[in-house]
């Protein structure tokens, strides 16, 4: 029992943070479509989940959680979780090299499909690989995560069943949401320390303090559910799907709370396009809706628990 | 990172589970806040101690087994899942004992810890005063040195849990005017203290007021040095808020019972709320495993324990409030009513949740005072 990240897991996270600090500053979010990706590819991040014989790092989902959280903190654009999680499904040699967008069951649009070399379409009856698709832009909330309707004629069936892929994608997205929430909280605290009204920093007022303390609590107790879900998926634990849903719902709700509080603490300037805060607000909402909203995942947990599967792991 | 229990940890869990299934009283003991229930709970503590299960994480010389915090969490999960009695010794073993182990002399530890572990002594805490609650450092009860050694205690303490029936108390008394550095940590026998029992919402005297009119205590009843009381007490309150006082096991057991109740009710909205509570109890459990690992590695729980106190106290209240909604007028025929009354106190004791949120904002997040 050692429920703490190893030095190696933390080191990968730190390496991703270092790359993104230089290559994906907030200014890049306004000008570049895929900043930082080259650096992450050089670290082997997108091939992290591939076995070494396919030139991967042979890691589990748990091993890349700190790194995924950093991509959320940096608001890194592009189908990050999709490309990393889908890599092991792709034909040999393509994984880790090619950028992948995913259409999930119940989801009409593919995010970031304009960047993708390949499209993975997850359907209840299996996964499909699409090489060429016609993309139609659709309006969305996140300027750095555009949505596209996709139409395609030809596809290859993939061997992997759709369910486990979707669980892993939900947990990877949840890890990003934890990073988004932490960044929103950090930006709110930084602003509340310097913004002065009534002759005092607004962060000295109890109404502001307690609101941000509630965000800290939500993030603090969402994160361990995400870590556990990744361990459960890596270990093939019996209730791993239920635990993945618990993680996605908790992380999505924590990020939504962080976004709402961040906007309120910043006030009118937070409501502008001029402040960088807008990118993290949008990411909290767009990832919160991706691969099952919090409400959808809450419903799955409820159905599992009420159906009698209240097994605890460990 | 892993969540695997070792073979030794699994064996320990099995031993605890077997012992509890053979020994947990049925029917449950009467409330520990009645004279009869208090003695029954004390006798239960003696049985636990005889099996060396009352304080498993303490060193063996004081009645424990010297096991790790992870084992202690396993013990707690099994204890509450088995429906075992509330711990009448909890203020002593969870709040005073950590301070004795850290700041006490070898003589103090040998004198008090084994008797605490067996329930021979039952300790009440004496922090709050009528005019010093959340602002604890405003307290005015005082201790005066007696020529030739020892002290006399004067003043008025209140909301002292278990003091109506307990044998001893511990708390802070002023030994000089300095707000924090003028406070000293005293232990005292309750037999010379004037105790006025105070009934709680359930009508039973879970509280008491303590009046000190020159109560004489020996020099050996001072914990640490005179003037160190505040820093010692803060070490206690951080354990009180943190994982030692309210370990996850208690909430996991409540969440399981709540889920069963929601299932029976057939009410989809209730099922939704129950499932959320069950998941949150899991989150507290997992968070605590991570915290335990950090503490075992030598880190202090510190201000982060306030995050946990907010989370578990409000979860506990939500769970019991939902159960009461589902049970309606039948609630009083079940243990849920007492549980609800107990849960209501959670956001108040050990530092109100308003104080905790301020601590989180200032000391965890770094917002200005």
From TrEMBL, chain A:
Keyword line: FAD, Flavoprotein, Oxidoreductase
The name this protein goes by in its record: Acyl-CoA dehydrogenase, N-terminal domain
GO MF: acyl-CoA dehydrogenase activity; flavin adenine dinucleotide binding
Isomerase as UniProt keyword: no
Domain Acyl-CoA dehydrogenase/oxidase N-terminal, chain residue ranges per copy: 6-86
The keyword Cytoplasm is assigned to this record: no
Cofactor(s) the record lists: FAD
Family under the similarity heading: Belongs to the acyl-CoA dehydrogenase family.
InterPro entries xrefs: AcylCo_DH-like_C (IPR036250), AcylCo_DH/oxidase_C (IPR009075), AcylCoA_DH/ox_N (IPR013786), AcylCoA_DH/ox_N_sf (IPR037069), AcylCoA_DH/oxidase_NM_dom_sf (IPR009100)
Superkingdom of the organism of origin: Bacteria
Domain Acyl-CoA dehydrogenase/oxidase C-terminal: 169-305
TrEMBL record, chain B:
Pfam families: Acyl-CoA_dh_1 (PF00441), Acyl-CoA_dh_M (PF02770), Acyl-CoA_dh_N (PF02771)
UniProt signal peptide: none
Keyword flag Methyltransferase: no
Cofactor(s) essential for the protein: FAD
GO cellular component entries: plasma membrane
Residues covered by the Acyl-CoA dehydrogenase/oxidase C-terminal domain: 227-365
Domain of life, per lineage: Bacteria
Domain Acyl-CoA dehydrogenase/oxidase N-terminal: 7-119
SUPFAM superfamilies: Acyl-CoA dehydrogenase C-terminal domain-like, Acyl-CoA dehydrogenase NM domain-like
Coiled-coil segments: none
Entry keyword annotation includes Metal-binding: no
Limits of the Acyl-CoA oxidase/dehydrogenase middle domain: 124-215
Gene Ontology molecular functions: flavin adenine dinucleotide binding; oxidoreductase activity, acting on the CH-CH group of donors
Keywords: FAD, Flavoprotein, Oxidoreductase
Family indicated by similarity: Belongs to the acyl-CoA dehydrogenase family.
Protein name as it appears in the record: Acyl-CoA dehydrogenase
Species of provenance: Nonomuraea wenchangensis
